[in-house]
Specification:
By secondary structure, the protein is an alpha+beta fold. The protein has three domains: 236 residues, Rossmann fold (3-Layer(aba) Sandwich); 98 residues, P-loop containing nucleotide triphosphate hydrolases (Rossmann fold, 3-Layer(aba) Sandwich); 128 residues, Peptide chain release factor 3, domain III (Alpha-Beta Plaits). It is 29% helix and 27% strand. It contains 15 helices and 31 strands. It is globular, with a radius of gyration of 25 Å. The chain starts with a helix and ends in a 5-residue tail after the last strand. Bound molecules: guanosine-5',3'-tetraphosphate.
């Protein structure tokens, strides 16, 4: 019973947004409400920004973008909250995609003025693929922005999900008066105070004449009309549909001014799903199973610049994880035990004796783990849904310092295991090609090779459009394809065949000329 209770109280989620919509600010406010950090106010100072984003890497400090993904855990209303932070920069989107494999729900932050932006669309698509339940927080209501109804339509059409507002804004920008909580029939008035949160004022219903005394006659009339329209247009909130990822509850507020955040977190802990089942190639895993299982979704290097050890982030999918207990590392077919597994409570790391499904633990790793690796009590399981995406930017990588060849080799291998980029070996000329989803990764690799491995790399340009995996049940056609395209073939880190298409035309022609070959754009097929 106690075991089930532990699982049911866990809420593991990520906050995602297009850069600048307010993800960091909202995260900080949630941490404040959860008592995980204690500095109230508009958390503008970099100090707190750092604790909230947990930038472990030197490079992140230099660039001021969140390269790393971290975990922040805290207790709130008897629930154990685990927020998985995701990098905002688009070049690190793949990091974010992988993090989304480890969450049970997400909160999407949207800037009221900018509406649904590019990165939000992409991330929401990944959530849809995985049927991850989604909540929306429309931020920056203290600024002028889009009309609420218009914005809801935009969310529905661009994110392909039905919405259901659970709070409603009273005005916006300079005329922002507060938020009406449709769910609880109460209202919180807005005061541009970054530190305090006003008490909510409750009403019997939306017709209560008291409302006028707080927000004025005109605003009260508009509010009633709008709430009436909301009730007429949007079906009643259905919890089951939310858990099936078919409807997204929407909240309005201003993270900077601490506004609407309380409503969001209170509703979140009430309705967000506890750990869900996980898919493996072998069978579905239910969190309540006795035996422990989990997978690595993220590897972090350079936590301590003096040591080169890494931390593998493991999502616990079933059973109880125990310290100093032997578990099977499936890929290596090796028993391993972990004397110092860490949990992440806000900015603190602590050694834990046990952890439950929904939790993320950090395991010190000297190079045994790759993204996607499974740990179990002995059962052979391969967790699915942690794909690599076919990269779109390519460079040859060469050794820049003949004395440091080994260091380069090791550095490149380890960075690839971490999922920073993908390495392909050209079958024709044996040259090594780095493929990434963003240009910034090339700089990250160069920087990290130098600072963590003492190696120097040189890049050389290569004209490539896409690298994609291919399979076919027509072995004759497959052989013919390999023969004719032998200059454009490579192997990935798992020794699988990859086609290096020089242009979209070349890819199209290959698809046309070899109709029995399937080309795959993610590594899971
Ligand atoms: P991100 O993580 O999604 O990239 O966004 P972040 O929270 O860093 O917020 C981006 C900018 O938007 C920040 O301002 C932040 O203060 C501001 N912001 C966040 N929420 C609100 C809000 O509710 N209202 C208003 N008016 N602004 C908001 P900045 O000047 O770019 O950065 P900083 O110097 O404040 O850190």
């Amino acid at each position: 019973m106690a075991f089930e209770k532990e699982i049911n109280k866990r809420r593991t989620f990520a906050i995602i947004s297009h850069p600048d919509a307010g993800k960091t600010t909202l995260t900080e406010k949630l941490l404040l409400f959860g008592g995980a950090i204690h500095v109230a106010g508009a958390v503008k100072s970099n100090k707190i920004k750092k604790t909230a984003t947990s930038d472990f890497m030197e490079i992140e400090k230099q660039r001021g973008i969140s390269v790393a993904t971290s975990v922040m855990g805290f207790e709130y209303n008897d629930k154990k909250i685990n927020i998985l932070d995701t990098p905002g920069h688009k070049d690190f989107a793949e990091d974010t995609y992988r993090t989304l494999t480890a969450v049970d729900s997400v909160i999407i932050v949207i800037d009221v003025a900018k509406g649904v932006e590019e990165q939000t669309k992409k991330l929401a698509k990944v959530c849809r693929m995985r049927n991850t339940p989604v909540m929306v927080f429309v931020n920056k209501m203290d600024r002028d922005g889009k009309d609420a109804f218009e914005l809801l339509d935009e969310i529905e059409s661009l994110l392909s999900i039905s919405v259901r507002p659970l709070t409603w804004p009273i005005g916006m920008g300079k005329k922002f008066k507060g938020v009406y909580n449709i769910y609880n029939q109460n209202m919180r008035l807005f005061e541009p105070d970054q530190e305090k949160v006003k008490e909510a004022i409750s009403f019997d219903n939306i017709s209560d004449p008291e409302i006028e005394t707080y927000i004025g006659d005109e605003e009260a009339e508009i509010l009633r009309e709008e709430i009436e329209l909301v009730e007429a247009v949007y079906p009643k909130f259905n919890l089951e549909l939310y858990k099936k990822a078919e409807v997204a509850p929407v909240f309005f507020g201003s993270a900077l001014y601490n506004f609407g955040v309380q409503e969001t977190i209170d509703t979140f802990v009430e309705i967000a799903p506890s750990p869900r089942n996980s898919e493996t190639a072998e069978r579905e895993i239910i969190p309540y199973e006795d035996k422990f299982s989990g997978f690595v979704f993220k590897i972090h290097a350079n936590m301590d610049p003096n040591h080169r050890d890494r931390i593998a982030f493991v999502k616990i999918c079933s059973g109880k994880f125990k310290r100093n207990t032997n578990y099977l590392h499936i890929r290596n077919n090796k028993q391993m035990k972990f004397p110092n597994p860490t949990s992440f409570m806000a900015e603190k790391k602590e050694i834990v004796d046990e952890a439950f499904p929904g939790d993320i633990i950090g395991l010190y790793d000297s190079g045994n783990f790759k993204i996607g690796d499974s740990l179990t009590e002995g059962e052979i399981l391969h967790f699915s849904g942690i794909p690599s995406f076919s990269p779109e930017m390519f460079r040859y990588i060469e050794n820049g310092d003949p004395m440091k060849f080994k260091q380069l080799q090791k550095g490149v291998d380890q960075l690839m295991d971490e999922g920073v980029a993908q390495l392909f070996i050209n079958k024709f000329n044996g040259r090594r090609i780095i493929g990434t989803v963003g240009a910034l990764q090339f700089e990250v690799i160069e920087y990290r090779l130098k600072h963590e491995y003492g190696a120097t790399c040189k890049y050389e340009p290569i004209q490539l459009y896409k690298a994609c995996w291919f399979t076919s049940s027509n072995s004759e056609q497959l052989e013919d394809f390999k023969k004719r395209k032998y200059q454009n073939l490579a192997k990935d880190k798992f020794n699988r065949d990859v086609f290096l298409a020089e242009s979209s035309f070349a890819l199209q022609m290959a698809q046309q000329n070899f109709p029995d070959i399937s080309f795959h754009f993610t590594s899971e097929f």
